[in-house]
Structure formats: structure tokens, C-alpha cells
């Protein structure tokens, strides 16, 4: 990460709200943050969209108008939406976590259990430029997609798809329940990975490409990821039984799975990933069908982080 100036101790903050995040927690946390910022003399401009498309349109308008700080009240989906407009601009991103995963906020060290402490990062945090991942089909076409946390495919894609279909339980427990359900259909997949021009073929359960370490509500899937080194961290899990994955599952939260014999980790500036009939997800959002090409873009976004 590249250090910069202090946060928005004065001036104007644009507050982008997703009312539906975390069971309407986004709206409550946004209102609480706005009161705290106003009490410290910071002018707050609150904007909200009725759906994802309108919210992104409003984020784009704020950036185009030269907003200094865009504070996002929501979860990883809202952050992902905002990154599409903030990448390679001078507008800084602040995160007021109110989603179920909050993995981007976790990677930045922003407290998710204390809304006042998160608002204080907007007031007095440090501005830093960090890397983002960018993915697109290898043949080009379509707008590239930016991601702040992890691009994943394989078993994880199936889990994310099942998680999105579930309405209960909530948060981390819902993801864990989806994992258990998909374990019953477990099968290895034929992956092709091209990392910095070197191609290899392997059978495995999943491949995760991380700009930061966390996904799935706190799982440290890419423990060696550093959003300030200009590289992506890759974690590949080889063929495994359901029992082996279950036993390794707790280690993912600690990041100690990287030493497991079935796990391989490495870094690359760019990665091309393919397995037939599979989709990828970035920041937990659909990234499209494979093959996809991902690359690290150094210093692509400015963020506010705790001092």
C-alpha cells in the first residue's frame, strides 16, 4: 500500500447507501455515520439507488462530479459496485461495513462491529492507494471487471451459486451450509492455469485468485495476498474427498491451509483461468463464464484505512 494524506476531517463526504444490505442495516448504519460526520463539521451528501443499476449510475455521477470521498454503506457487493466507478480515479473509497461478509473491509482493517469506529476512519483515517484485480475474457470484448478481494472458480463457484439461492441461515452460517450441501456432489475439475505466460493443466477442486486474502465472510483463502505488491496470490486445491475438505475447512479461516499437501499457492502478475462449463465469481459477484484473464493493477484505487 502507498500511504497518503489524512481522511475527510473537513469538507464533504458523499455517502452511498444500499438500504437492503445486511437486512436493512445499511440504511441504519448510513444514518448513524451521517450524524457522526455532521457532528464533526463534515458535510454529508447522501445518495441511494432503488436497485444495483441505479446505485451504480449514482456512484458514477458522484465520481464524475469530482467527489473527494465516496463512503459506501453496505457489504462486499456494494463495494464491488463502487469499485467499477472508482478504479483509476482520484475519488477515495471509505467503507462503512453493513453486509454479511464484509471481506474488503476486513482486509483494510475497518471494524465491522462498531459503526462509530468505522465512521471515525472516514473522519481521521489515512489515505492509501492499493491494488485491484481486473478480469476480462481473454479475447477481449465487454467492459473489464474490477475486484478488490478474490476471484474464484470451481467448488467455490458452486457454493456461491447455492448460497445466493438460500434464504436461511444468514451470514457465515449460510455459506457454511452451502459448503456442506455441495460436498455431497463433490468432483474434481480439469483446470488450465496460465500464470505470467506459463501454462499448466491440473485436476482440482477450486482455484482462487486473490488481491486480498479474505472471502466467504472471513475465510483467509489467499493468505499470502498483499494489495500493495502489484501481484495476485493464487491458491489451487487439488483433488480431495469430502472428508479431507471438511477437515481442512477450519484451517481456511486461520490461513494455515496453505501448508496442506493438497494446496498449492503462488503469485503472478496475470492469470488466465479455464475449466469447461464453469463460471467465476469476483467479490462474491458474478464475473462471467470461464475462460477469464485476471491481472493485478497497481495502485488502482485510493482507500481510507485506520491510522
From TrEMBL:
Residues 8-138 form the DAGKc domain. NCBIfam families: PRK11914.1, YegS/Rv2252/BmrU family lipid kinase. Belongs to the diacylglycerol/lipid kinase family. This is Diacylglycerol kinase. Gene3D superfamilies: 2.60.200.40, Probable inorganic polyphosphate/atp-NAD kinase, domain 1. Its cofactor is Mg(2+). The keyword Magnesium applies. Keywords: ATP-binding, Kinase, Lipid biosynthesis, Lipid metabolism, Magnesium, Metal-binding, Nucleotide-binding, Phospholipid biosynthesis, Phospholipid metabolism, Transferase. The lineage of its organism: Bacteria, Bacillati, Actinomycetota, Actinomycetes, Streptosporangiales. Its EC number is 2.7.1.107. The keyword Protease does not apply. It is an enzyme of class 2 (transferase). GO terms for molecular function: ATP-dependent diacylglycerol kinase activity. Pfam families: DAGK_cat, YegS_C.
Amino acid at each position: 500500500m502507498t500511504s497518503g494524506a489524512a481522511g475527510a476531517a473537513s469538507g464533504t463526504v458523499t455517502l452511498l447507501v444500499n438500504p437492503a444490505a445486511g437486512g436493512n442495516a445499511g440504511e441504519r448504519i448510513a444514518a448513524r455515520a451521517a450524524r457522526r460526520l455532521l457532528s464533526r463539521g463534515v458535510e454529508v451528501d447522501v445518495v441511494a439507488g432503488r436497485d444495483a443499476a441505479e446505485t451504480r449510475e449514482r456512484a458514477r455521477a458522484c465520481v464524475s462530479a469530482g467527489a473527494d470521498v465516496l463512503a459506501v454503506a453496505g457489504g462486499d457487493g456494494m463495494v464491488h459496485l463502487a469499485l467499477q466507478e472508482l478504479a483509476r480515479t482520484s475519488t477515495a473509497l471509505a467503507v462503512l461495513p453493513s453486509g454479511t461478509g464484509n471481506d474488503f473491509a476486513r482486509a483494510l482493517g475497518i471494524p465491522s462491529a462498531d459503526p462509530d469506529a468505522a465512521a471515525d476512519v472516514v473522519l481521521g483515517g489515512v489515505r492509501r492507494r492499493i491494488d485491484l484485480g481486473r478480469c476480462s475474457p481473454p479475447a477481449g470484448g465487454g467492459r473489464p471487471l474490477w475486484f478488490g478481494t478474490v476471484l474464484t472458480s470451481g467448488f467455490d463457484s458452486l457454493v456461491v451459486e447455492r448460497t445466493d439461492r438460500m434464504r436461511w441461515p444468514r451470514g457465515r452460517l449460510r455459506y457454511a451450509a452451502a459448503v456442506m450441501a455441495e460436498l455431497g456432489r463433490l468432483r474434481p475439475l480439469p483446470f488450465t492455469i496460465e500464470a505470467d505466460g506459463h501454462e499448466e493443466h491440473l485436476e482440482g477442486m477450486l482455484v482462487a485468485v486473490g488481491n486480498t486474502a479474505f472471502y466467504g465472510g472471513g475465510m483467509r483463502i489467499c493468505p499470502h495476498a498483499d494489495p500493495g505488491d502489484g501481484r495476485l496470490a493464487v491458491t489451487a486445491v487439488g483433488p480431495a474427498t469430502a472428508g479431507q475438505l471438511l477437515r481442512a475447512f477450519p484451517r481456511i479461516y486461520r490461513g494455515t491451509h496453505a501448508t496442506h499437501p493438497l494446496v498449492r499457492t503462488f503469485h503472478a502478475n496475470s492469470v488466465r483461468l479455464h475449466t469447461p462449463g464453469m463460471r467465476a465469481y469476483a467479490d462474491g459477484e458474478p464475473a462471467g463464464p470461464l475462460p477469464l484473464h485476471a491481472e493485478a493493477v497497481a495502485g488502482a484505487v485510493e482507500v481510507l484505512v485506520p491510522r
